[in-house]
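Appendix B. Chain record.
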Amino acid sequence: MRELERDPSSDTPTCARLAIVGRGRVGTALAAAFERAGYEVSGPLERGADGGGSDAVLLCVPDAEIGLAATHVAPGPLVGHCSGATGLDALTPHEAFSLHPLMTVTAQGADFSGAGAAIAGTTPRALALAGELARALGMRPAEIAEADRPAYHAAASIASNFLITLEAAAERIGAAVGLEREQLVPLVRATVENWSRLGPERALTGPVARGDNATVARQREAVVEVAPDLVPLFDQLVAATRALSANREGQPA
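Structure tokens predicted for this chain:
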């Protein structure tokens, strides 16, 4: 993933009129963000819109519907999608680009400033537009090769989606003994900050990292009692944490 530096000669936007197709969370959030950034935005529009009168059309639709949505766009404008895993062939025959914000978007919207953004383009002009749009929202664009998109998206899913699944498991086990989500939140935030600052090996704490197998065994017994369906997940996490802990040897303190 190669981060792209801003080209000082490209300060003048190559796109003034932007059509957003798709009224889901991402389309709604991006439409509002681009409007605040000074673009003339059409949308978010219903799926099937042709994007007429726009310099560029950004499809914010489910991955499986990108190809169909692209067929409705009239020839002329550059056409992009905001999928992390889908290649640009889905947009054929348009001059195509992709812009995937590396940011979680909820029904309440999102703050894209400071986030990464995976971009690609079938032409230098399309790639430049993707970078321009990312920077307009304060994002940091980086070009992702076509073959690397699935791995890139898997990393994003693990970092965001799977983290929520993991915290849901912690919340469920904690609830069985009266522990509330709000009491876990400071721990989660501090852990993420430590990972960001120190890296995974140095940020790792807890009984597995200490080699306290007796405590780990007691934890497992508790999981068996309060949430037996989570035991396989617990076992896999213990094994992965032991492997990570083993990598700490030789790491700077």
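Further analysis of this model is presented in Appendix C.
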